[in-house]
User: Fold this.
Amino acid sequence: MGWLQKFTDWLAGMIEALWEAIEGFFTDLFMIWMKQVAGVYLYVLDQISLPDFITQYSMCSLLAAAGPTVGWAMDTFKIGEGLGMIGAAYAYRMVRKLVTLFQW
Assistant:
């Protein structure tokens, strides 16, 4: 192994290290940008106020007035678990769209 081979190996190592540093910089820059975008989304969602007619009611008071038959049906047909699965699927879809920058 001659001096030219050692020099070219050293130069290739330096170029690879430089490329990895640039790649890491842009990855960090992208993550900082995504954090700022998510912060803007959260700020906008936080500024949306609930309508007055919604704040008067709670889920418990609405279901208590419905009667025991509705409670039996919700327990038998697992309405709560089903709504939880729908919510989880919707959250997964939104996260997937956000991660892929709305390409899907």
The helical segments are 3-47, 52-55, 59-66, 68-76, 79-99. The chain has two domains: 1-48, 51-104.
